[in-house]
């Protein structure tokens, strides 16, 4: 009976240690950045969401005016945050489910998506490095 208790304790430590190793200020900054990004997407304010995306990522994956117009046709109906994990390189991954309705056709779409966040030690801030959700699945 002691082994399951030990396994539970080890599992809890695995969840708590990465956040503790991150440091309180860094963890708070991550929470604030994630909340700001989530709020921007929830309100369909994609320009504000893009302000939280890593400039290096945006340079490699620019968002065109046409793409922004496609996003403006959508009204986000839900943004559910799932599990988070710290990857080996320190990047934080968070599972997300986003629902949106096309304002013109009233067709609803649901996307499961993985947000990735990287700590920028020089800027002392978190950057989102996975861009905007792809409601069109590459189409």
UniProtKB/TrEMBL annotation:
Leader peptide range in chain numbering: 1-21
Domain of life (superkingdom): Bacteria
Keywords: Signal
Protein name (Swiss-Prot/TrEMBL): DUF4440 domain-containing protein
Lineage per the UniProt record: Bacteria, Pseudomonadati, Pseudomonadota, Gammaproteobacteria, Lysobacterales
């Amino acid at each position: 009976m002691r082994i399951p208790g030990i396994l539970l304790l080890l599992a809890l430590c695995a969840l708590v240690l990465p956040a503790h190793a991150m440091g309180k200020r860094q963890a708070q900054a991550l929470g604030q950045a994630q909340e700001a990004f989530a709020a921007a997407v929830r309100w369909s304010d994609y320009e504000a969401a893009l302000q939280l995306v890593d400039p290096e990522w945006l340079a490699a994956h620019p968002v065109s005016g046409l793409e922004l117009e496609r996003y403006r046709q959508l009204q986000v109906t839900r943004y559910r945050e799932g599990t988070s994990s710290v990857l080996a390189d320190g990047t934080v991954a968070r599972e997300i489910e986003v629902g949106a309705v096309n304002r013109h056709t009233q067709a609803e779409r649901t996307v499961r998506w993985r947000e990735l966040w990287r700590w920028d030690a020089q800027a002392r801030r978190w950057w989102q490095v996975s861009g905007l959700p792809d409601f069109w699945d590459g189409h």
